[in-house]
Amino acid sequence: MTEIGSTIRFLLKWIGLVVGGLVLIALLLFVVAWTVNLRDEPPTPESQALRVPPLNPYAPEDNIYVGLAGLDAPPGESVTVTGLARIERFNRQIDLASQDPRPETLGGVATQDPGPRLEFTGDVGFCEPLNRSVWADAPAHKTDIAQLLADNAELYQRYVGLHRRPGFHETARPSITAPPVYFSTAPIRKLFLANAALKLRTGEPGVQRAGLADLTDDVRLWRAALTGRGALISKMIAIAYLEGDYLVLADMIADPQAAVPLGAADSDLMVPLFALGDWNIGSTFAEEFRAEVATLEQLQRASATGLPVPERYPGDILFQSWNRAENLAGAHFFKLHATENLFARNAAQLVVSAAADPAAFTAKSRQPVVSPPASEHPWRVWLSYNPIGQILAAIPAQGLTGYAPRAWDGAALQRLVRLSYEIRRQGIEPAGLPAFLARHPEWSTHPGDGRPFQWDAKNGELRIQTMGRQPPGRRFGIRIWQPYSAG
After folding, report:
1. CA atoms within 13 A on the CB side of 337
2. Is the pLDDT of residue 28 over 80?
């Protein structure tokens, strides 16, 4: 018994020493981590440069963004005045969240104006510009379109009025919860495209010219939105709307019964090609950075309340991670400027990756944005400098890498439609298409990665090999005019 008791005491002694040693090591590691995180680092020049927004060169009545914000103003009221009021209301709420950082002001910035609106009347679901052919579907709904135009006359004229505004510049404060200025645009724009298709299908030259002018003005409108100052959602909506315009043109060009201007000087009027730089959405990542910085500053002020920040929407990963991190480590392990510097580094990499450099684009797209917490073991993150900031910076980094390829797919679709126009204008027969494509890579290859468009002789279609992950059902192939189909 004495020998057994001695063994037990020996084991207990060593267990105590081991446990005590582990506790001591843990305490030492905590002290090291605490010491490492005593100070914040200063903002880098890169971060400081990205924080400066471009100046707004447009008066409110010239700004497409203001017009979109007030598009569904109450009947008879000014689109510009209403748009300005809504944007100012949003900006005041953002300022309130900054000055009075309580959970209820941070988590629930109301972006929807509670006042009356000019609602779209009717159902325009028969028009799906990105998934179906508006050109083919519109004639069967001619009566519906006429009724919808009568029922939505004021809203329709407001949308057409946007064409007269020369530029686009977002004037809302940087924030992840941006005003929903595009909600009222979707149905009236579908009606606009359906009506343009009907005009182009008539046999009356004057009406056809008016329809083509409508589409040309719409391309100009969304090109301004694409190239102006705007957040990521603005860029992607502009790209989608441009794709819709060009698909209507593509179906018109493919229709042997359609009257298509085919003069040597008509190419740039019918299917204008943008400069490649217009499709470079790199500037939007600077906008996203400014929104992220504003959110980080609000979160830091919110930490003083000691309460969890409510999610802005279900599954809000950023605020969920913040609440968990705050519970685990406290504000000591979050350094605002160091985190902003991480976000700035990611934004700068995204800007470079989005640049108009087709030869290097594929290689760039394979280089992931640096986000150490995604690959390092959790304990290494927590023992490093600014662990909470590292975790927060890793959340949006990878999610933003897929948007630039989708923008280049939009550029490729524009090229594809121009190619189809040149095929018709020059009277290229199917047998001569492969040689024609080879002679004109400026029309027949993807501007993002240089891959050639695919010719499906059996179905008479040309298709793009897309770079981005596109929503299901999107059209990236078009039928080509063929001489033998013109009976």
Report:
1. 10
2. no
